[in-house]
Amino acid sequence: MATAAFNIVRLDPGCFFKDANITKPKIWWGRKLYTKAMVASSPRTLQASNDKAHEDVRVAVLGASGYTGSEIIRLLANHPHFRITVMTADRKAGQSIGSVFPHLITQDLPDMVAIKDANFGDVDAVFCCLPHGTTQDIIKSLPKNLRVVDLSADFRLQDILEYEEWYGQPHRAPDLQKEAVYGLTEIWREEIRNAGLVANPGCYPTSIQLPLIPLIKANLIKCSHIIIDSKSGVSGAGRSPKEANLFTEVSEGIHAYGITKHRHVPEIEQGLSDVAHSKVTVSFTPHLMPMSRGMLSTIYVEMAPGVRIEDLHDQLKAYYENEEFVCMLKKGDTPHTRFVRGSNYCHVNVFPDRNPGKAIIISVIDNLVKGASGQALQNLNLMMGYPETTGLLSQPLFP
Ligand SMILES: NC(=O)C1=CN([C@@H]2O[C@H](COP(=O)(O)OP(=O)(O)OC[C@H]3O[C@@H](n4cnc5c(N)ncnc54)[C@H](OP(=O)(O)O)[C@@H]3O)[C@@H](O)[C@H]2O)C=CC1
Ligand SMILES: CC(=O)N[C@@H](CCC(=O)OP(=O)(O)O)C(=O)O
User: What DSSP state is assigned to residue 64?
Assistant: First the structure.
């Protein structure tokens, strides 16, 4: 590593650590102690730390009038380096953010415009928070030099035939699909750093792959018979009005949907198969819960022969030891959605089933943060060479 070039690490506005004469500097960042090598593991970090320390990254939020767009804006209010220069909307084009989202009324931001009227000359990076199916054409038309994080499902499936089968429409940007990197940050960090286009994972796939991938990588569970039962808050369905999401339809009850055919099945299977190096299939059933945000996945697995529940716990604990956002809970503690609400954290634990050889894994996230906008910001931080926790260390909102 070019240590000579690495003489300043920016922590927050106005706060610099000079480390030129220190052989093993360590930096507190959130709840983790990072070594110099961890913070500076990409050449882009060096560049951002030295050359661009006083330059903002100019960001466009496409779909700013939606739930994930508004979460990006909320998170960027605490970001020292990213500045929003363009915001778009469809039906709400022409309106200010404060009129569409009064909780953001203090943000001094440009009014939202239609995408066709947006000026991308004043933009370095894009958060694309649009419905799947609309996104491929729009990203294809953006200037090529922009770094893009797409929150929709349009670039998540590597096999475009699979996309066409599950999304019921032809893929309209197959060349771009080849470049897209799947943005499950903790797993694909090195690929994300250098990506031009990151396909941010779906909320269910995030909550499911984070606990399963380390166990599959270590051959601790059988890849057959994985059963996943997930629950989501209603914001997962977006802000556009739909009869099925009326208060009267979702309150005082819970129901399953998309049984056997939810479009996140191929995304989950793709991610698990990639690390298993063989085709993995899962049984997945999502449920809609009468809460605005939050997601809980309960995953039933068979352990590999000779594996004990402690082995699963130890593997997940070790795998995520140095990760800020994935917390392995103490043995016996149950993950609750209310303890990650509004934050980028994922809480995980494993429990022995009463049937020998089987285990139950529970994970929770906030679908709008780690399941969408928080992970998107984590990815753009990496792509622009900033510590990936920047702007994301707000603690969960409780009660
Ligand atoms: N909600 C969640 O928990 C998660 C969502 N996602 C994905 O993120 C993306 C955004 O989701 P979410 O924010 O919930 O959705 P919303 O429905 O809340 O927002 C959609 C946004 O896109 C705009 N829009 C709609 N249609 C068009 C169009 N044809 N052209 C241009 N702009 C359009 C809307 O503008 P206007 O309001 O003016 O109509 C709005 O700004 C989706 O692909 C979703 O699947 C991913 C993970 C989790
Ligand atoms: C409650 C609810 O409706 N949730 C959405 C998933 C939201 C999400 O992560 O998905 P995408 O980014 O893939 O759209 C659904 O089931 O379609």
Answer: T
Give me the phi and psi of 203, to 5 degrees please.
-70, -45
**Cα(235) to centroid of ligand 2, in Å?**
9
Distance of CA 390 to the CA centre of its chain: 14
339: Cβ contacts below 8 Å, ≥ 6 apart? 347, 364, 396, 398
Q: How far apart are CA 119 and CA 58, in angstroms?
A: 12
Domain definitions of the chain by residue range: 3-50, 204-367
CA of 204 relative to ligand 2 center, distance in Å: 7
Q: Which CATH number fits domain 204-367: 3.40.800.10, 3.30.360.10, 3.40.50.300, 3.10.150.10?
A: 3.30.360.10
For ligand 1, whether the C-beta of 91 sits within 6 Å is yes
Question: Tell me: the pLDDT tens digits for 335-364?
Answer: 999 999 999 999 999 999 999 999 999 999
Shortest-distance Cα residue to atom 7 of ligand 2: 236
Q: Decide if the complex's ipTM is over 0.95.
A: yes
Assess contact for 48 and 386: CB atoms under 8 A: yes
Token digits of residue 95: 């309106």
Q: Which of 37, 41, 343, 307 is nearest to 189 (CA)?
A: 41
The whole model's pTM is what? 0.89
Residue 214 DSSP symbol: H
